[in-house]
């Protein structure tokens, strides 16, 4: 395919679309469970997970950051003071206590604990110890439990790393984004290769066995040459996993993104070329592409999970297994009880007020109906295995339309259809979000009145 044909195909499929970290996607949640209903869903998922083995999962959202990176799409709170930290951590631990009390469990059996943000290493060692110690003392860890954290290398110290390792953390994800000084300057995220190297080496020295780097393509001023430069440094530091996220430009939700002009943003074919350049470099260095925008060394458990078909996708990205239920603790955190989702209050003040009233701080949520549950499984299959089959319990009337909805993708060589399923081709990988959109019955029935999602290309 020549350059003009590639551009035409990209333009054809460049629409606003979800990243499918959940189905239904958050803007289509409509049936918020009451606290009692949510606890009933969590309790049922817990009983199933106790019987089947993996234990529950906890995500803690630590929203604080020292300064705003202008590309950021996360729920953050920029602050320089620590006076608000301890009250927040106490609220998070109270939220966990409310769950245990209302579920009638003294200590929750955990298969996964993940600290994300914002920037969990904004917390100093004493604060981090209070949070992690508080959660672990009220939990029972399953053998082989996965404890992981997202860190900003600019604010991560040897003391924090040692403390986390002592608590059993062995996975760490570093926000790297890009190493080109010009790109770093415009997105207000200046950090050196040396800072990243120091944290990577220190983490490995104290026992972290899996290091992930978050990178972004599509940032202002990025070029294939600048991606090359970033990849030189990344391949030398050799993290076990890499997330190479497409920059999600959503300035109507994140006004901070208006701080650079859109003229400087690579879009369409130039943006896709940045991804392709990154992919080529990573594959040449021995990484394998996984799902959407992710890479891992063959020695990493994520690649092994991808091959074994056990990999899962949730609000944090890809994980080795579907550990359920997922309790989201903290402001804006999302919980998943397989057939229901909830998101906590997104405003810090409101989060505190709800906890002070001893309420679970549910802001919104959704109880999945029978069709949602089937379509969720298909979208998860596509996002994790690049294929799905609709037979037996995985059928629902909406799937009857799928061959027609995928016909153009098939004609363009992006999917292969058989009577009972479909498989994404190598060429189709870059259009995975679009292919999943064909399975999104809620989007098909109600087009958004305004733009909700970032562009897919
Ligand atoms: C919570 S941050 C990671 C930890 C820490 N705050 C940091 O930045 O180093 C999560 C990741 O989301 C990604 N991210 C944030 N905003 C994004 C956007 N608009 N588009 C794509 N990826 C984004 C970045 O790669 C970032 O590392
Ligand atoms: S990218 Fe990380 S450090 Fe930067 S504002 Fe977002 S959460 Fe904070």
Question: Could you characterize the architecture of this molecule?
Answer:
This protein is of the alpha/beta class. It has 16 helices and 19 strands. It has two domains: 311 residues, tm_1862 like domain (pyruvate-formate lyase- activating enzyme); 65 residues, Orthogonal Bundle (Arc Repressor Mutant, subunit A), CATH 1.10.10.920. The strands form five sheets. It has a nine-stranded mixed sheet with strand order 9-10-8-7-6-5-4-1-13, sandwiched between helices. Strand 18 and strand 19 form a beta hairpin. The longest helix has 19 residues. It starts with a helix and ends in a 12-residue tail after the last helix. The structure holds S-adenosylmethionine and iron/sulfur cluster. The site of S-adenosylmethionine has 18 residues, from strand 4, strand 6 and strand 7.
Approximate helicity band? 25-40%
| Oligomeric grouping of the chains | single chain
> How many alpha or pi helices?
16
For the secondary structure, the number of strands is: 19
Overall geometric form: globular
As for the CATH topology of the largest domain, it is pyruvate-formate lyase- activating enzyme
Low-confidence stretches: none
The termini sit apart by: 17 Å
